[in-house]
Design a protein that fits this description.
homodimer; 3-stranded antiparallel beta sheet; 391 residues; globular; Aspartate Aminotransferase, domain 1; Aspartate Aminotransferase, domain 2; 2 domains; 12 helices
Chain lengths: 391, 391
């Protein structure tokens, strides 16, 4: 054999402890980390099916839905976006995408790959969200088969209310898809009440499990669309009609299908993440995130810094965007926090790159103590990162 | 909120310890399980990039390749199959698939979804593999763009030698893709020497990490095919041109692309799985699996049972298929082993369903003691599972 074993693998694995106050992943709690080291179970073992059933019910709870077709896809939150579009869109379908940050743009990219005709409603005034009237006008003009909305734009820190949109999409015979990756658990998401037809999230944000699973749910209306497809679902791995059989979502008496090898480890983590939310109660979890966010807003203003999203009701509590002050090198600030305190504060992404800091308040990390720590470090880091005399 | 927290999540997580001697996943060693409970790192943290670099080199080692475009996809082994076909095939391309079990059939299903024209070379005499002459004739007739071969068919326990096929595919201007999910580490796989253009595997078999990652590698020839595509790569999540940027496979100086949120937890596990193989040495790992397999063959024959694959050189050491004796209810046998001893022995899959037992010999579980245990339990379980007086 010509290729020798690499030297790097001889060295022991050393993982530093960090406090992850960026837009995700967040830190998993000791309870969740402990679950990850439990022995592996086979993907067709009854004990793992029981855990999958508990996860399904836990996702129904956090999504506030009774949809039977509710499960976790074995890939990152991004896969939720891809799976929803892949199952619901066919070539030449018109899809309308609300864009106020990078994730709407990404959805447009994905939808185009599946051959859909993409129409965009773009928020040019960054730092704001869409009104119901703007949305209704766009749906009326474009008559899309599917409307795609991001509830929490982690790149800009914008919160997009969903209430009222479902009534519009029903009126225009359109499907409503909502991305809740960065928002779920920090703001209410009432999937059934708000008439959302398909939604997905990520395991690694407020749920606090490791990345690698994407909670997802489809209602009967979405299922009917899939049943009426003229072309096959193009990707086997995202095929929700098969995944639904593996997760026992259709007929209780039907045998479980072996679609792919699920990751017992990740399922343990997600199960525990959802259990922690069920224990605390979803309302309380949301309140805790909102209180921490309010505390952060106050502290940021006390430091003389400005929030990127002006109006408080348009801010996503789980990801706060803060303007980089004039004369400050943002990279120095985040590097200082990481090097000196092993604290992650992020820079911007996509349209906000170089313009903002992003502070995540998610799950286990959403505590008053952590907010105080972030503010103290930020204050100190800013002093070390002035590039001119303006500050 | 109308949907109440589910009762099941109130109960503590309890995972039974089992010995997984089926076709995978296998048990992760304590070293690997311990790595899984390490704190989460962000997907753009330098420490995680270092681990990804080590994984890349570890995969190059187990694949015996110097391919720069070598990485792990963030989804199950199945995703490796999907990713290879998605990147290399375009609509109306002809693909030739060698089928001697369920995985070839699955590849055909996937290729059809991507719009390829599928030609199949089927082994009707189950329990055998393809000769070089059969393969060359089929390539000559069908003139495919891509030839798909499974090195180790876990459904039938058949080993397909790869040596010599690469010379044929080069002669006919065809790409050679090899599935090594169930075989890698139990038999040699010399990717570069054998002129394999793309290959993939799973993390949860001989590598002994949890499921959820798929090692994958493309050579320059495969890359050229991708560069010359007339249509875009249809699936963002499998897009190897973007994944390669995230894994720093192209230009050393280029910044890492944020393609998706990788799972730190799973990367720790895979890193440790590859480190364990590097420590023991790949040749020794392969020998250990082959010794255990020989021990199992002998024991099975001593029990008066028959192996499904007649000729020893056609048997996959990591998955042994054993004929269910007349008068024995196979399900009772596997249930007895699981209930009484928490030992997983599997039934057949696809073409072998109901006909065989499948015993996996993989990674941490590949020890002489475990083989003795399997044989002892099998002997006892058979006695309890006779349905007629024939045995």
């Amino acid at each position: 054999m010509n290729v020798r074993p690499p030297l790097g693998l001889k060295s022991p694995l050393r993982i530093p402890h960090k406090l992850l106050m960026g837009p995700g992943p967040s830190n998993s709690s000791p309870r969740i980390l402990n679950a990850l080291s439990q022995p592996i179970l086979g993907h067709m073992h009854s004990e793992l099916f029981d855990i999958m059933d508990e996860i399904k019910k836990g996702i129904q709870y956090v999504f506030q839905t009774n949809n039977q077709l509710t499960l976790a896809i074995s890939a990152s939150g991004h896969a939720g976006m891809e799976a929803v579009l892949c199952n619901l869109l066919e070539p030449h379908d018109v899809v309308l995408i609300l864009i106020n940050g990078i994730w709407g743009e990404r959805a447009a990219n994905l939808a185009e790959r599946y051959g859909a005709i993409v129409r965009k409603l773009v928020k040019t005034a960054l730092g704001s969200n869409f009104s119901i009237i703007e949305i209704e006008n766009a749906v009326k003009i474009h008559q899309p088969k599917l409307l795609f909305v991001v509830q929490g734009e982690s790149s800009t820190g914008i919160y997009q209310p969903i209430i009222g949109i479902g009534e519009i999409t029903r009126r225009y015979n359109c499907l409503l898809v909502v991305d809740t990756v960065a928002s779920l658990g920090a703001v209410p998401f009432l999937m059934d009440k708000w008439k959302v037809d398909a939604a997905y999230s990520g395991s690694q944000k407020i749920i606090g499990a490791p990345p690698g699973l994407a909670p997802i749910s489809f209602n009967e209306r979405a299922l009917k669309t899939i049943a009426n497809r003229k072309t096959p679902i193009p990707v086997y791995f995202w095929d929700i009609t098969l995944l639904g059989q593996q997760w026992n979502c259709f007929e209780r008496s039907a045998p479980r299908l072996y679609h792919h090898t699920t990751s017992a480890t990740l399922l343990y983590g997600l199960r525990e993440g959802l259990a922690v939310i069920a224990d605390e109660g979803l309302e309380q979890v949301i309140k805790r995130h909102q209180h921490c966010a309010a505390q952060l807003y106050e502290g940021i203003e006390a430091l003389g810094m400005q929030l990127y999203v002006d109006e408080e009701h348009k801010r996503l509590p789980s990801v706060t965007t803060i303007k980089v002050p004039d004369g400050v090198d943002w990279r120095k600030v985040t590097e200082y926090a990481m090097k000196r305190y092993k604290l992650e504060i992020s820079g911007g992404l996509g349209p906000t790159a170089g313009k903002v800091f992003r502070v995540g308040i998610m799950g286990y990390n959403a505590t008053q103590e952590n907010i105080v720590f972030v503010l103290d470090v930020l204050k100190e880091a800013l002093k070390h990162s002035v590039t001119s005399s303006k500050l």
